[in-house]
Amino acid sequence: MTQVVHTRAELAEARAALKGTVGVVMTMGALHSGHETLLRAARDQVDHVLVTIFVNPLQFGPNEDFDRYPRTLDADLEVCRRAGADLVFAPSVADMYPDGQPRVRLDPGPLGGELEGASRPGFFHGVLTVVLKLLQLTRPDLAFFGEKDYQQLTLVRRMARDLDVPVEVIGVPTVREPDGLALSSRNRYLSEPERAAALSLSAALRAGARAADDGRDAGEVLSAAHAAFGAGAPGAQLDYLVLTDPELEPGPVSGPARLVIAAWVGTTRLIDNAAIHLAPRA
Ligand code: PAF
């Protein structure tokens, strides 16, 4: 049975009744099979799965898609039931922020201003603030985040480490369509030609990974990825394509790395990333 609560008071009562380990999956709704994979990963590792569904206004800029972000609560609850969630917390904005937008927000540090943060000022302040708030409200043992939002996952991990938040953060691999497109709630904005153009992101990552597997160096990996992006269907506008270390620190020249990409397809911003293993330097 999946219990659904909408207020912090109801959540406190329902949470107190959960005995054993608790895993949280935080979402903004519009659930797809990528989220379902997160829920199932949680189901395998804890006694109780708690899902939060909340479109967090703090993480949307003034010209972003807060108003048009898909809100599909009934379908989302169906996914939660199917995946065996025990408790769903779906609060209103007024219940989450009863005094209006919080004046105190978490500072994500320098990484918060790079990559996604460079294009979306304040985004990670909003994400980390709501993630910490939801962690306080749900008090999970484990928290599951998708690797698709790799910078978010990295910052949440760092927040938990730096601020001694008592939770283990688990990254869950990205789920893809058979043609490589990473699942995202924003894919539903894409027209058919835009969807074809969106494949340029995963094509770039695959080309980069292939080049790394062939023993190419970092510069060649990036060139291969750029070439594949450019060869995709027209309509995708690259924002960034960066090879960094797995914690998104500057680098790397060899060993484990992450290739991260963001592009605009029409008015939709898409992101993706892949693990890369660079050969040791000669
Ligand atoms: O990844 C998301 O859906 C959101 O950024 C999150 C973690 C639910 C916070 O609003």
From TrEMBL:
Chain's gene name: panC
Quaternary structure note: Homodimer.
Annotated EC: 6.3.2.1
Annotated residues for binding of beta-alanine: 59
Name by which UniProt lists this protein: Pantothenate synthetase
SUPFAM superfamilies: Nucleotidylyl transferase
Places the protein is found: Cytoplasm
Naturally occurring in which organism (per UniProt): Micromonospora lupini str. Lupac 08
Primary subcellular site in the record, as a coarse category: cytoplasm
